Amino acid sequence: MPEKAKPARVNLSFSSTQKTELIKGTQVSTEAAGKKIYFSLDEDLDIVPAAFGLEKLIVDGLTEGVFDRTSANEAGDLFFAPFGEQVRAGCAFYMGFGKNSAIPPQTLNFMCYLYEKDLKVPGSHGDEQEYGFENAKLRWEISDPASGYPWREVKPVDNTAGFKKSGRITFRELEGWKATQSIPLMNFENSYFWLRCTVKGSGYEYPPRIEKIRLNTVPATQDLTAGKGSEKGKGGEGREDIANGKEDGEEGNLKAGCAWKVEGSEHLEIINYTPATGGKKAQTIEEAVEVFLRDFKVPYIAVITSDYEYIALNTPGLRVAKAKAVPNYRPLLSQQAKSGGKEPTKSGYSKGSVTVVVIPYTPLEILRSPPTPSAGFIQAVCRHLDRHRLLGTEIHVISPDYVKVTVNITVVPQEGYLDDSLVRKDVLSVLNRYLHPVKGGPDGQGWPIGRDVYLSELYELMEKISGVKCIIRLSVYGENGAARDSQGNLLLGSKFSSVYSGQHNVEILREAESCLKRGGLHSGN
Q1: 334/261 same-domain check
Q2: Do the Cβ atoms of 156 and 171 come closer than 8 Å?
Q3: Residue 21: which domain range?
Q4: Strand pairing partners for 10?
Q5: Are residues 418 and 479 in the same domain?
Q6: Do residues 259 and 319 both lie within one domain?
Q7: Does one domain contain both 88 and 186?
Q8: Mean pLDDT, 10 residues at a time, over the chain (525 residues)?
Q9: At 495, is the secondary structure helix, strand, or coil?
Q10: Of the residues 368, 399, 430, the one at which a domain ends
Q11: Is there a contact between 341 and 375 (Cβ–Cβ < 8 Å)?
Q12: Are 242 and 253 found together in one domain?
């Protein structure tokens, strides 16, 4: 059956000098191309007066330091990591509201937009719903210096799922919220009402990054029935258009910055800082057939290894960068704790078992630690595979066996390159990129799971760097059971292994007149 028209969706930000309550379903409107477009609020909204604004954003990254990130939220092209670049228990994020004599609200809500422009699109598989999972334990508190303990826990409705995706966070019953001039390690000239989020346990696949926090913001959905059916737009309108399938979802795809209004609430200022998107016209029969034929090629039953890999990579809601399926194999004992399936009774060959290695996506170029899937991430992939496996197949999902790889290299720079540090920087950049589990490998699509590191490929890679004239010495080493063969190649030792860069050693030599190039001396060009 052809799909019906889909309404557009938008996030609307409200501003008011007075406290205002709007209920779910409240209709808002704007004009586009001389035509009124209607949307309805998806949730209730208690508007906090403008006097109680967001004034401070503070990040406590423990050993990384304490930083004021307020300006990052004010600029349109910046983002910040709320818990620092190395998220661990004890890292905290502080939000300071109001000033001195401001009156705190009983309900607070804000939209948290995460920076996602450099991320892989989350997986999808047919019309299946996203999998929810926990990869961090967070504790939210408000400042309450009048009590015996200066912080009091509050429970939010968190649609970001712990900063995994952009969404709205709402707090209710904020009785006892008090302002203070100080938080741990920082003092301020003004008093603020502080909201603190502390990491109690972290399994983040990469540090979350916030692009913007906006108060009094709520999602709204286009009302396809409003204003339809007659030029005057009176009672009963829209029914004829709906019956004829003429409702238009695409007219709701609006640019950012539209002016909106709620009838009878002229004191409200409403704007959409981001575009309204997702509106689609009803499908034609031809379009429905095309979608069906395309979907027909998608594997929904896991039979061969490529099916398992496709299904794992497209787990709804997850960003899976790499997946490798190994049939007739149970995880080793050291991997059992990382398995999303049943605890195997023995390791090694096992007919009817399939082990899938998964690597979560990370946007980080330089890795202090490799991207490791959390227990919740693994369970989500395993649940998805379990829905699509053949009856009797035993499924296990594990993290890769990571090998930290170190390269020692001595190079002669090209004439004209007078700064050794620039040549060293270029060499390190290429090595870090190549030996990257998500962005590296021969094709730049991530290091193939189980693939060894070949010395000849490293030579070829280094010789392509514009600042390198020739190579004197090159060797590669690895941890976690990796070993070098007689040719100097690094054998990872496991079909479940992947690599990430260690601390490479780059020596610059300017006196050499000849270079060693894969087994012999030659003159540099």
Answers
A1: no
A2: yes
A3: 9-46+219-271
A4: 220
A5: yes
A6: no
A7: yes
A8: 89 91 95 92 92 93 94 86 95 92 88 95 93 95 84 95 96 91 90 96 96 96 75 44 60 94 90 94 79 74 94 97 91 52 55 92 93 96 95 93 96 86 94 97 95 96 92 93 95 93 93 53 37
A9: coil
A10: 399
A11: no
A12: yes
Asked if 389 and 307 count as a contact pair (C-beta separation under 8 A), the reply is no
Is 464 inside a domain boundary? yes
Q: How far is residue 429 CA from its own chain's centroid?
A: 23
| Pairwise CA distance, residues 469 & 505, whole Å | 18
> For residues 340 and 356, what is the distance between their CA atoms, to the nearest angstrom?
10
What's the CA gap between 297 and 402, in Å, rounded? Answer: 34
Distances, alpha carbon 65 to alpha carbons 59, 84, 86, in Å: 8, 9, 11
Record the tokens describing residue 346, joined without a space: 């023995």
Question: Is residue 87 located within the same domain as residue 165?
Answer: yes
Using CA atoms, how far apart are residues 499 and 273, in angstroms rounded to an integer?
A: 41
Within 10 angstroms of residue 418's Cβ, the number of other Cβ atoms is: 9
What six digits make up the tokens of 381?
């992939």
Q: What's the sign of the alpha-carbon dihedral 297, 302, 308, 313?
A: positive
Tokens at residue 474, please?
A: 């090159």
The structure tokens listed for 320 are 């899976």
Of the candidates 372, 399, 426, which is a domain's last residue? Answer: 399
CATH number for the domain including 199?
2.60.120
- Say how many domains are in the chain: 4
Record the pTM. 0.87
Name the token pair of 225.
């029935």
CA distance 236 to 290: 36
Q: Indicate if 19 and 164 belong to the same structural domain.
A: no
Give the whole-angstrom CA distance, residue 274 versus residue 159: 18
Distance, CA of 515 to CA of 463 (rounded, Å): 11
Distance in angstroms (rounded) separating the CA atoms of residues 221 and 38: 9
Q: Are 385 and 397 in contact (CB under 8 A)?
A: yes
What are the structure tokens assigned to 313, written together? Answer: 């990579």
d(Cα 154, Cα 137) in Å, to the nearest integer?
14
Residues 42 and 139 in one domain: no
Q: Distance between the two ends of the chain, CA-based, in angstroms?
A: 65
The DSSP bridge pattern shows strands 136-143 and 186-202 to be antiparallel
Amino acid making up residue 518: R
